Amino acid sequence: MAFWKQLALALLLALAGVAVWGAVDPGARPRLAAAGVPDALLPSWAFLATTDSAAAATPPAKGARRGDGNPAGGASGGASGARAALVVTAPVVMAETANRVGAIGTAEAARTVALYPRATGMVTEIAFTPGQHVEAGATLVRLDDDSEKIAVEQAKIALADADARATRNDRLAETRAISAAERDTARFELSKARLALQEAELALSRRTIAAPFSGVVGLTPVEIGDMVSGSTELVTIDDRSEIKVEFRVPEAFAARLAVGQPVEVATPSQPGTSFSGKVSAVGSRIEADSRTLVAQATVANPDDLLRPGMSFAVTVRFPGVAETAVPAPSVQWDRDGAYVWIVDDGKARRVGVGIVERNAETVLVSGELAAGDLVVVEGVQAVRAGAPVRTAGEPERVAGNAEGPKP
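RESULT FIELD:
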C-alpha cells in the first residue's frame, strides 16, 4: 500500500477514535481544548456527549471574561486548580537501635579434670557410680596396697627404735658417757626414720584416688582387677555448678565487649528457654584467620540442666543509639534509593533516608528528619513533590484557594 494511503487511513482511524471518545465522554472536548487544540478542529457536532456543564468547564481563551465579570482563572475560578491529595500521616519518633550480636558457643564445665593414678597397681575398688555427684576428697578408686601398708609399719618400727636410741644417747651425753658425735649420729638416724615413715605413708596414700573437688563423675574405662599405670585415665569429674560458654564476636564489636557484660544463651536441648549470664573473660587479640575475638561467658546452672559440650546460641546486647523512626509503610524506593514524603506547610516534600534498622512495625532511618515531622503513611501513590496534601479529617482545599473549603 502506498505511503499516502497509509497516512490517510491513520488519520481516518484517529478521527474515528476522537469521535467515539466525544460520543461517550462529556469531558473530551474540554480536555482537548485545554491541551491546545484549536476550536476550529473541535466542532460541537463531533462531540455528541458534550453537555452544557462540560462546555462551561472548557477554559476560555486568554483574556476572556466569564459572565460574572471575573477574569478566567481568578479566585472564583479555583475549581480548575489541582485538588489536594488525601493522605494519612504519622509523626516521626525517636527510638534506640537494638545493637546486638549473635554467636554460636560451646559449653564447658566450670572445672573439669581427668584423673590418673600416680602409681602402678591393680584396681581393687571402684567407689562411685557414673553420673554420681561426689564431694571433694571422696574416694573414687583404690589400688592394691598390701606392700605399702607393710612398708608403713616397718617405718613406724624403725622410727620408734631411732627415737629410743636418740633419747638414750641424749641422757648419756649429759653425763659425758658418750661423745657428742655419737649423740648427733643418733639424732640424724631419728630424722631419717621420720622421713622414711612419711615416704611410706605417701606411697600408701597414692594407692587411693580421691575427688579433687565437688562434681559429677563420668564413665570409667577400668574394672576391678585391671592393672593401671600413670598413663591410664581412670575417670573424669566435672563441676557443673556453672557453665562456661566460649564464643566469638566479629571484629567490629571487639572494642565494645567487656567483662561483666550481660549475655543470653539458648540451647536446642531446652527449647523455648533462655539463660542469663555474664561475660567472664575476653581474649587479648583478634584472630587473624577469622577476624573474630574469643570471649567466654559464665552461666549459673543451679538446676543442672546444662551439660559441658552443648551448643549455645549466644546473644550479647550493646547500648543503642538514638535514631529517627518512621512507620514501615512510609518508606518508598526508587532508583535513587529510599525516601519518605513529609507534610511541610500543607505540601508534600520528599526526603531521602538511609535504612539503619528494620523492626516489626517501624524502620529506623537517617536523614533530614526530626521528631514530630509528619510522614505520609497511606496515600503515597497520589503524592507529588510540592503538591498540596490534606490529612484525613481536614476539609478539602484546592490549589490557589486559600480562603477555605471547596464550595
